[in-house]
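User: quick one, fold this
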Amino acid sequence: DVCLSKAKQQKFLYIADQSNACQLSTIGRVRRVSANNFFWIQCIKSPRLRSLLFFEEFVPEEEMEKALPLTMQSYINNHDGESNNPLLLFVLLLGFSVILTKMRGLWKYMFNNFNFLRVLDYDRGGVAGCKLPNDIGKLIHLRFLGLSGLDFFSSKLPSSLGNLRCLQTLDLRIESICSDSIHVPNVLWRMQQLRHLYLPEECNRKTKLKLGTLRNLQTLVNFNTKNCYVKDLINMTNIRELEIRGPFNIEDFNTKELDKNPPIIQSKYLHSLSIINEEGRIDPRHLAHLLLSCENISKLSLDVKIRRLPEYHYLSSNLAYIKLRRCELEEDPMPTLAKLPNLRILKFHNNAFEGKEMFCSAEGFPKLESLSLVILNSLEEWKVSEGAMASLQRLEIQKCIRLKKLPDGLRFIATLQELKIKSMPKTFKDKVEEGGEEFCKVRHVPSIILQE
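Assistant:
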């Protein structure tokens, strides 16, 4: 409260809510506005506004109702629930048209009156109108544009986005009410100041983006080879976080002499790599070659069918965090992962491993602190040798329905502080409880959590 009070005194920040929305028109010199209602836009009379933040749903339902004429509101309320009433359907469609028209006017007001905006961020999403207007290209001073979660009827973004040459952060994770994919125009290459780019989760097939000019890019989310070019990654020498969503295929890949293929990434700063493909798989050779280019990464997340884990020499020795999900590995990955000298967190989720046995050998996983085994439906036996996972502090076992017992080697892990057993068969949990036949293996653990 003290900070907010000081900010208001110095006209650094003005927070608009229902109690003071009517005062917005009097704050002409304010530079930053944080609001929870898009409909208040036209109350703001500050042509030199620098920052505009929305932290609630784009247009709350109650505000949509207020935007309708009173007669229309009354008819809808009086006939609510009459699904077979054709007149009600007509009135609802007409009302929605009124709201969309009002939204279009608000967008236009903002783009024509706040030409000095540096920051425009919508935090909670919601229905935002028919489409993002072309007039957004007038906000040429924008440094930050966040549209994440907004729903438009049109699936096309305007080409005028290319005018926003000063952008450093661009979040295009919008959705279309009428389509499963978003068409992004090939204009992002003009934004050479971009540091952080978040593409839509699903881009239209017609979308093919050139990103090779974005040499300052540090974060790239939802990259894939269907809509982007692999060759552009090598120019991103400052990239720090890369998330690949969807297909990843390397064109003209030499499958016979892997070392003859050019590197994919040359950024020495890349520390986080995520690959997500819910429907397909990635060629293990392409994955191995990609990992070979990521020699400094410390965080790796694979949510894709790969069947086989790349060999140890393809993995960065700096890896501290690995999450495997839906990988459907057929061979035990533990012997490979156990060699990683700096691995601290390891997660196997949703059938990351489809084999029946796992084995952790002595002196493996020297720095591992947290291990999660979640929904490994085929796992029946897990063996841990004395001396393995000598630094383990937290162990979670969840929904591994065929796992018969805890490994005997847990009794030797003196560092273990928490054991969490969740959604396991009753016979398994009964063995782990105090007095059960498996309790002797974990009696030294301070916190044992058993959950349904």
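User: anything notable?
Assistant: The radius of gyration is 27 Å.
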